[in-house]
Amino acid sequence: MAIESVGGATASLEIASLRLAKGQQEQDGQAAIELLESASDSAAPSSDPSRGNNINTFA
User: Fold this and answer.
1) Integer-rounded Cα radius of gyration of the chain
2) Phi/psi of residue 57, each to 5°?
3) Most exposed of 17, 27, 46, 58 (fewest Cβ within 10 Å)?
């Protein structure tokens, strides 16, 4: 009887651990999506059309 209850407790702890890990993965995934979405926002074009046309090639 004691062996069965230890096994049940171990299984319960394992399930709880898996649920916590799943929740953490979902939070990480949501954070990654938010980061990608924020990075896709492009900067507003400059009012000066010649800006950025000259590239300094000397280091």
Assistant:
1) 27
2) -100, 0
3) 58
pLDDT digits (tens, 9 = 90+) for 9-46: 888 999 999 999 999 999 999 999 999 988 876 666 77
What is the Cα–Cα distance from 9 to 56, expressed in whole angstroms? 67
Q: What is the pLDDT of residue 1?
A: 45
DSSP letter assigned to residue 47: S
Residue 8 DSSP symbol: H
Q: In degrees to the nearest 10, what's the CA dihedral of 51, 54, 55, 59?
A: -110
From CA 41, how far away is CA 38, in angstroms rounded?
Answer: 6
- AA letter at 21: A
Q: Token pair for residue 30?
A: 């949501």
CA distance 34 to 26: 12
